[in-house]
UniProtKB/TrEMBL annotation:
GO terms for molecular function: hydrolase activity. The keyword Hydrolase applies. Gene3D superfamilies: alpha/beta hydrolase. Pfam families: Abhydrolase_3. InterPro entries: AB_hydrolase_3 (IPR013094), AB_hydrolase_fold (IPR029058), GDXG_lipolytic_enzyme (IPR050300). This is Alpha/beta hydrolase fold-3 domain-containing protein. Keywords: Hydrolase. Residues 42-132, 184-264 form the Alpha/beta hydrolase fold-3 domain. It comes from the Eukaryota.
Length: 296
């Protein structure tokens, strides 16, 4: 089968030589457009905000779901040389953020049905392929959902960052009541990787401006203080738990808030919707974090 992309094959060839240690991303790759859309307006605010009465020493970024991915990516991108003269971000807040698509068989992903089907593994795969500008045929989506887009040797190399055992350790650290054993356990997949698909997907999916969870520790160490909000019944919960673990190891001040009765869209519920108290309490804690970050 031919794996189609939304850009010519010469660009695919160039992707294979990219280094994970660099956040540089060729400007003519379609999947760089979302964070470019965010980072350049933010650059304008940081550079010229004083002319508008903005205290640029008190600027932070926040994002929900895919927006959480963008917030994390922008924080990484602002470390690049072209932004070094700008004021540093004071904080970042990541709410229910999608932070990697290397492993779609983590515990929270395996519990997609148990969690009520608000987000599915196939939907997550479709989102990742769309964001990357790759083939969106049903067959490709299915293969990504089955983890066939990453080679076994790549998964082994990244197991220090993305692995179900690390999720278990972080969940036990974060919550006194939740246990991985209470959930449906991910099945050990024996499906062989599709090397043709992996050749296209890995250079993008492993890049830190696509999967911030995989950024080098030296990049993470320069991030601002961070608040990570996750929900028990959320397919991307484990991305957040693993990112908190990495930030802590990089000695970044990090606050982790795991909402034990919430799902992916719980923070969109307000009075008189059921569950609105969870959203209001979570946002109160987020706003308290922001205030403390800008006033400290």
């Amino acid at each position: 089968m031919t794996w189609r992309t939304r850009h010519d094959t010469s660009l695919v060839t160039r992707r294979r030589s990219w280094s994970q240690s660099s956040t540089a991303w060729p400007r003519n790759i379609p999947s760089q457009r979302p964070w470019m859309t965010v980072s350049w307006p933010l650059r304008t605010v940081l550079k010229n905000g004083h002319e508008l009465g903005i205290d640029t020493s008190k600027v932070g970024v926040a994002g929900y779901s895919a927006g959480g991915n963008l917030a994390a990516v922008v924080s990484l991108r602002l470390q690049e040389p072209e932004f070094q003269t700008l004021p540093k971000l004071r904080y970042q807040v990541l709410l229910m953020a999608s932070l990697q698509k290397v492993d779609l068989n983590l515990p929270s992903t395996a519990n997609e049905v148990f969690y009520g089907g608000l987000m599915s593994r196939q939907g997550s795969a479709d989102f990742a392929l769309s964001y990357a500008g790759l083939d969106l045929s049903p067959d490709t989506v299915q293969q990504v959902a089955r983890n066939q887009h990453v080679l076994p040797e790549t998964k082994a190399r990244l197991a220090k960052y993305v692995h179900r055992n690390l999720v278990k350790e972080e969940l036990e650290r974060t919550s006194k009541t939740l246990k991985i054993e209470q959930e449906v356990q991910p099945a050990e997949t024996q499906t062989a990787a599709n090397r043709s698909l992996a050749a296209l997907a890995e250079p993008i999916f492993l890049h830190p401006l696509f999967s911030p969870l995989l950024a080098e520790e030296s990049s993470l160490q320069r991030l601002p203080r961070t608040m990570v909000v996750s929900a028990r019944y959320d397919i991307v919960r484990d991305d957040s738990l693993l990112f908190v673990r990495r930030l802590r190891a990089a000695r970044v001040p990090v606050t982790s808030l795991l909402l034990e009765t919430a799902h992916h869209i719980s923070l969109t519920f307000f009075t008189p919707e059921p569950g609105s108290e969870v959203a209001k309490e979570a946002y109160r804690k987020v706003f308290d974090f922001m205030k403390q970050a800008v006033n400290s």
